[in-house]
Amino acid sequence: MNKPLASAIGHSACPHDCPSTCALDVEIGADGRIGRVRGAADNDYTAGVICAKVARYAERLYHPDRLTRPLQRIGEKGAGEWREIDWTDALDVVAERFLAAEQRYGSETVWPYFYAGTMGLIQRDGIKRLTHAKRYSNQFSTICTNMAWTGWMMGAGALRGADPREISVSDCVVLWGTNAVATQVNVMTHAAKARKTRGAKIVVVDIYDNATMAQADLALKLRPGTDAALACALMHIAFRDGTADRAYLERFTDDPAGLEAHLATRGPEWAAGITGLAAEEIEAFAALIGRTKKTFFRLGYGFTRQRNGTAAMHAALSVPAVYGHWQYEGGGAFHSNSGIFGIDASTSTGEALRDPSVRHLDQSRLGAILEGDRNALAGGPPVTAMLVQNTNPANVCPDQRRVVRGLKREDLFVAVHEQFMTDTAALADIVLPATMFVEHDDIYRGGGQSHILLGPKLVEPPLTVRTNHFVVEELAKRLGVANRPGFGRRERDLIDDLLARSGLERDTADLEAERWIDKAVAFKDAHFLNGFGFADGKFRFRPDWTGTPAPNRPPESIGALGRHEALPAFPDHVELTEPVDAAHPYKLATSPARQFLNSSFAETKGSRSREGAPVLMLHPEDAAREGLSEGAIVRIGNGRGEVRLPVTVTDKVKPGVLVHEGLWANSDFLDGEGINVLTGADAVAPYGGAAFHDTAVWLRS
Ligand SMILES: Nc1nc2c(c(=O)[nH]1)N[C@H]1C(S)=C(S)[C@@H](COP(=O)(O)OP(=O)(O)OC[C@H]3O[C@@H](n4cnc5c(=O)[nH]c(N)nc54)[C@H](O)[C@@H]3O)O[C@H]1N2
Ligand SMILES: Nc1nc2c(c(=O)[nH]1)N[C@H]1C(S)=C(S)[C@@H](COP(=O)(O)OP(=O)(O)OC[C@H]3O[C@@H](n4cnc5c(=O)[nH]c(N)nc54)[C@H](O)[C@@H]3O)O[C@H]1N2
Ligand code: SF4
Ligand SMILES: [Mo]
């Protein structure tokens, strides 16, 4: 490391899987340790504000339970008996087991499995270089963005939208299916500014009274999975009351007349019956956005984690197209900017080495895959060896019992590269200790905003802890592919290469000085005033559900996903959600906790003490009927399994709806199994994804 350790402030970017991707100022003491982490004041999206959990990062970095030595299992899988080994031996074992597996079943039996523990483009995605060089099975990444991105693409044809900084000049901010206070606090910074300086109204559409709902001027608490009905009624009222912008519709949309006719029967009373909202609430929402040209729809991921979530995203996105909000600064819609960056990381990801005939396996169907489901295996060999980086599937994946059973298979070899002894690492054969973001070089880009940011190495890691990049490179040497293109380079060289290939006209050192690059697109492109992302430039009210390319479109090899034939011709409520019935009378959503970031931070004292313990929110009426009081222990379950946890009785949830916040460690539950025991891994239409907030359960005391 050639940076002086005593520099007072180091500049970085938050590596976590959060739409905000904050620009960070990190205090570094003379002892080479980090202190407080702050949001960069001069980054106009971060605007000096970050969440409390990252501000306390020192707690995570210097955590006494942090992994520092490679470990090899000596007892049964999951028994918690390990011996320390050195790095060379650990990597030798991994390589030997990979080669042996390959010899027996062919290269596709090895599955490098990764996700978003770090969002750094080098440390997160470098594992693909090894995958391609060795022709190991590819991962089809479905766990997070699929439904949301696909639903957006079906309407807009491009993954971008109105600049989220425009929220601060909006007159009405609609936070739809995002608990922004908890999951992307910067949205609230800009919304609060609009409220303070312009008297902007804040509308929140969610299924429970979360921290964001508490900020709402108009709080709409609907039944899970009914957002498309609300969207239809908003559009029905626009056509009824003349607040639809007919000139805009004519110019920028595919079939306004067809939409109007389709919506004739989908008024507020119809939607009230489906959503559980009062017709007056829907009328009030429609009147507000009808008179407010600068209405900004910030569409989140939450409402898309339903089995009808793709259709719901498309329906909600259709609303500003009917009202014409897109034409105004501070108006329109935003979900993700992931389509604007034009980043070419192909050297690091080994794109040139990719063999298109190698199968993809669905990340979310890990349990079925490890249990040998032929369809999930895409007709190929069983998975008998894995390298897991940046993800904790034994905790975060749906259908957890199958995942855990699969990971415990005696004939499966698993190496987990981790910062902590997670639920997944605990089931591994080899555990490798990983660096944290301030200890390695990487580059990041926003999803919920428009910056590319550098996150250089600022402090030294513990002596025996290694980067993801190191593991990929060292395995490549042992697996005979170290001489292939893309290997043998340092992180900084790969970042230089990425910057050059992406046409950014800078190198790593330039970016280190500049700290970030703003890639925001021009107003007219962000607002689609030069046309939407289709050849005819028109927004699609009538999506081509399986014909429209989408960033998460599955590769052919994966076969059919989801019941696309059930998706609606025009925006509509579709009954694809998991049915509530006499045997499963409750609907469960598993929403994020403010102090955690997925399963990360569930290990830090600061976050744990603020979150308390895993609990189940239950409405007072339901509690009375079930004869339960505060703190009573219940079991909730369905065909996939059951978990035990205490209830908290609260009217924050609707009757019949249960909410469990946070990805607590499985061991935090009374029976040592986590909430994802209950969630399903069946693929959501049309391109797959996991419906984490759409689970029907029974409840017993
Ligand atoms: N029930 C339920 N389940 C869910 C969700 C939900 O809402 N409800 N949300 C889903 C969503 S949206 C997502 S994106 C997934 C997220 O699932 P994951 O990506 O698995 O979640 P994280 O906890 O962010 O990160 C996983 C691990 O990465 C490790 N890690 C961080 N940085 C590094 C690094 O540099 N190197 C290495 N080797 N490891 C690192 C962390 O220690 C952490 O244990 O979970 C999904 N699961
Ligand atoms: N503190 C914290 N921040 C996070 C995360 C975290 O775990 N904790 N996770 C990160 C990740 S990986 C992601 S992808 C983002 C996701 O962040 P968001 O975009 O906020 O999406 P979700 O957190 O999945 O859900 C948002 C809200 O949608 C609600 N919801 C569930 N079902 C429905 C429905 O049918 N309709 C409506 N209208 N709302 C519904 C949930 O209860 C929740 O309050 O957040 C990131 N930031
Ligand atoms: S988790 Fe999100 S809000 Fe918190 S610092 Fe990171 S990017 Fe910012
Ligand atoms: Mo996510």
TrEMBL record:
Keywords: Iron, Iron-sulfur, Metal-binding. SUPFAM superfamilies: ADC-like, Formate dehydrogenase/DMSO reductase, domains 1-3. The lineage of its organism: Bacteria, Pseudomonadati, Pseudomonadota, Alphaproteobacteria, Hyphomicrobiales. The keyword Lipid metabolism does not apply. The keyword ATP-binding does not apply. One of its GO terms (molecular function) is metal ion binding. This is Molybdopterin oxidoreductase family protein. Residues 7-65 form the 4Fe-4S Mo/W bis-MGD-type domain. Belongs to the prokaryotic molybdopterin-containing oxidoreductase family. InterPro entries: Asp_de-COase-like_dom_sf (IPR009010), MoPterin_dinucl-bd_dom (IPR006657), Mopterin_OxRdtase (IPR006656), Mopterin_OxRdtase_4Fe-4S_dom (IPR006963), Prok_Mopterin_Oxidored (IPR050612), YoaE_C (IPR037920).
